[in-house]
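We store amino acids, C-alpha cells; thus:
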Amino acid sequence: MSTAFATPTHTPSDLYLALQEKRAQQAPGYFVDWARSLNTSEGALQAARIGQEKVWPIRDVIQVLRALPSLGHVLAITRNLGVVHEFKGTYPEPKLGEAGSHPTGLFLDIGGLDLRLMLSHWYWGCAIEEETPKGTRRCLQFFDQYGSAVHKTFALEETDLQAWQALVEQHTDTSAQAAAPDFLPEPEPEQHLPATSPSQVEAEWRQIKDVHQFFGLLRRHRLSRFAALQSVPADLSRPVPVTAFNTLVDAAAEAKIEVMFFVGSRGCVQIYTGQVSGIKPMRGWLNLFEENFTLHANPEEFAYAFVTRKPQSGGWVSSLEVFNAAGQLQVQMYGRRDEGQPEQAAWTAMINALPDLN
C-alpha cells in the first residue's frame, strides 16, 4: 500500500520512502504524476532525492540561465496541467531584467528556442543524472515557490557534455549535506471575479496599440485573463467549442501557413513558430510531431475556448485561447505575424470561420 500524505509539508525521508515504493510498484507515470498521487509537489519529490541519488541543488538559478547557451543542442520543456511543449534547439543569449518587483527575461529566437521568463517564479533548481534503459539521462529542472516545474532542460546526444559537466560542477552543490528547499503549499485557485466596469474594460481594450498592453489592462482592473475574456462583446472575445483547437491546427496544416503556439507555466512561456502537420491522436492525447517541436495536449483539461481580437498598429491580432475548468490558460494559438504587419489573411479567415459555442 502506497504512502500518502495529507499536506505537502512532510520530511524528505518520508517522501523518498514513498518514491521508492512507487518505483517498486513500477507505478506508471512521471514524477509530476507520482507527486500528485502523494499529495505533494514535483519539486519536493525531486528534492527528497538529494543525498540519496545524483540530484544536486543549483546555487544560483540566474547564473545557470546565463550558461544555458553553452550547452549546445538540448531539449527544452515547458508544461502546465493540460499541455506539454517540447523543443529541440540551442538557447540563444538571454536577456534577463532582474530589477523591479516583476523581473522578466527572455531567450529570443523566433522559429528556434523562444522563451519568456517571469523570474520571480524561478525559486529553485537542480541538476539530475540517472541511469535509464536508454542510457544516462541528464537534466536541469527549475521549480517555483510551490514546487511546480517552470521549465526543464534535457541533454541530447548532440549536447556538449563537457560544457554540461562544467555547469554542474560550477553551479550546483554536490555535497551529501546539500540543503533541501522550503516549498510553500499550493495557493487557492485564482478567483475569476467579473469586471466591475465592463464598459470601461471594453473601451480600454479597443484603445490597445500593442498586444502587450493587455497585461496592463488586466492589472488596472484587477481581472484574471479568464474573467476579462468574458467581460467584452463577441467581436473582441467570443466563446467557441474546445474542439476549435483541433479544427484550427488541422486547417493551418492544410493551408501550410506558419502558426505560433504559446504554452506557459507560472514562470515561463515557451513559443513555437512554424508550420504544423496536423493533430495525431494517441492514447487519449492530442499530439503534434514536427522536426524539432512536439506538443502534447490532454483534451480532458480543455474546458473553455475563446477567439480573441486585439488591436495592433498593423491591424487586429486574432488568437485562440484555451482554458481548463479552473480558468487557467493552457495554450494560445496565433498566426505568425511580423512586427507591425497585419496578420495573415488566411489565418484571419480560418479563425473567423470557427463556430460559436452555441
Remarks:
- Confidence is low (pLDDT under 50) at residues 1-8.
- The chain has ten helices and 18 strands.
- The two ends are 47 Å apart (CA to CA).
- The domain at 198-352 is CATH 3.40.1570.10 (Heme iron utilization protein-like fold).
